[in-house]
Specification:
disordered N terminus; 449 residues; single chain; 4-stranded antiparallel beta sheet; mainly beta
Length: 449
């Protein structure tokens, strides 16, 4: 049995862990004997913020898998897990306890905004309901954990993704607490993703339940406000529901049911357009994070290059809009990173900072409200912010390193409002500069495009 508590004292015997409740909620996990008249173990699980566990499941060995949400920056995690530190805002947590209540693993799961996980089960399934979002988790016979929920993070970690990018753009989705659904499969020790993907449209989703089929397919169910929710062989192909105005601003809402397979993946592709091949982890990252639309065609094969930022050698490959670096010391999906060409170009062009910088200011018609990043002190918003969010956010484009300012374009010789990010330069007309071409030609061909 597992619930959450707001008590400052927990009547259940000495906890296994020194994770005692602070000012907020802590989760607790309790195991009773078969007669229900004695405790096998009882423990707190949490940090100094709000930690809420919503459901629990048992695997065949009697281990308990717990899922919930945490607002703690010091939620207890274990060495070697995929995300040992919080992503920001509210994160999901997934924890496994042995049959005698010892912590086997514990990990955060989330991006820089709010992420929610609520239910967890083994076998045929169950679901739970939480304060901010609704999610579930299943566990297969080999110990892989499958988590689904809702996320407001444009940089939620994805790997081998069916839908690599965040799509929810409904103005009230943040206030309602729903973004896009996510489905993440963790390996048995939570040290790597098997896959992790968004699922949803532009209106927002609230994923509530998950189950595993005998064939290994994953089934999820929830509700959607999107008229463009991705469908295939639908029983009902359009959203025709209407919800209460107070609950969702009179936006149409319907339930959804999805069945997701884990098909064999292609790990190499030859591009006749440029005569280059992308393969291995570099191809997986390229394919799962937007492919041609995000990175463009390859300009080179993979080769070793010394980074001008840290002086280390990396296996790299250049594309029209970016350069990808292989980091084999990191687990997937963090073993490939987008090189910080935006930072390199900004330092080269503006060693003392760009002139005439103006932070974006929100207005009632803005497509993306102003957001200040404390890490760099810069503001992102409007059409540039909308592009940043829709094209991977922090993971693929990085933090803003300048405010918006006018710059003469070398490609069309027109002055555009631009903003520099660690890994990109974005214009206010909703386009990114082709940094991969510019940097590759300058560095290896002695040509300025």
């Amino acid at each position: 049995m597992m619930l959450f508590t707001v008590q400052s004292e927990f009547a259940g015997g000495q906890p296994h862990y020194d994770y005692l409740p602070a000012n907020g909620n802590d989760a607790f996990i309790v195991r009773l004997n078969p007669q229900g008249n004695a405790l096998t173990y009882a423990t707190y699980l949490g940090g100094t913020g709000d930690d809420i566990a919503y459901s629990v499941a048992l695997d065949p060995a009697g281990a308990a898998y717990v899922a919930g949400t945490t607002g703690s920056i010091n939620f207890p995690t274990t060495p070697g897990v995929i995300q040992p530190k919080p992503g920001g805002g509210q994160d999901v947590f997934v924890a496994k306890l042995s049959r005698n209540g010892r912590l086997v693993y514990s990990t955060y799961l989330g991006g820089s905004d709010d992420d929610g996980a609520v239910g967890i089960f083994y076998g045929n399934g169950a679901s739970g309901q939480g304060r901010e979002s609704h999610t579930a988790i299943a566990v297969d016979a080999q110990g892989d954990a499958y988590v689904t929920g809702s996320t407001l993070s444009a940089d939620f970690p994805t790997y081998r993704a069916l839908q690599p990018n965040y799509r929810s753009g409904r103005p009230s989705s943040k206030e309602a607490g729903y973004g896009n659904a996510f489905i993440t499969r963790l390996n048995p020790n939570a040290s790597a993703f098997v896959y992790s993907t968004y699922l949803g449209g532009s209106g927002g989703e609230d994923s509530r339940a998950i189950a595993l089929g005998a064939d290994g397919d994953v089934y999820i169910a929830g509700r959607t406000w999107s008229s463009d929710f991705p469908t295939k062989h639908p029983l009902q192909g359009t959203n025709i529901g209407v919800c209460d105005a107070k609950a969702c601003d009179s936006v149409e809402v319907d339930m959804f049911v999805a069945r997701i397979s884990d098909p064999p993946r292609q790990y190499s592709h030859y591009f006749s357009e440029t005569g280059h091949t992308v393969s291995g982890s570099l191809y997986t990252y390229w394919d799962e994070h937007g492919g041609l639309a995000q990175f463009g065609y390859p300009l080179s094969d993979a080769f070793s290059e010394r980074s001008p930022l840290d002086g280390r050698w990396y296996l790299v490959q250049y594309f029209e809009y970016a350069e990808l670096e292989l980091h084999p010391e990191n687990p997937p999906p963090y073993n490939v990173e987008v090189a910080q060409l935006g930072s390199i170009e900004y330092r080269a062009r503006y060693p003392n900072g760009a002139p005439n910088q103006q932070p974006f200011k929100s207005d009632e018609y803005g497509s993306y409200p102003a957001r200040i990043f404390s890490e760099t002190g810069k503001t992102v918003g409007g059409s540039i912010g909308a592009y940043w969010q829709a094209h991977g956010g922090l993971i693929t484009l990085g933090y803003p390193i300048s405010e918006e300012f006018p710059e003469l374009s070398a490609s069309d010789h027109i002055i555009h409002t631009v903003q520099y990010f660690e890994r990109a330069i974005i214009r206010d007309d909703g386009r990114a500069q082709r940094l991969g071409i510019a940097y590759y030609w300058q560095r290896y061909m002695g040509v300025t495009p």
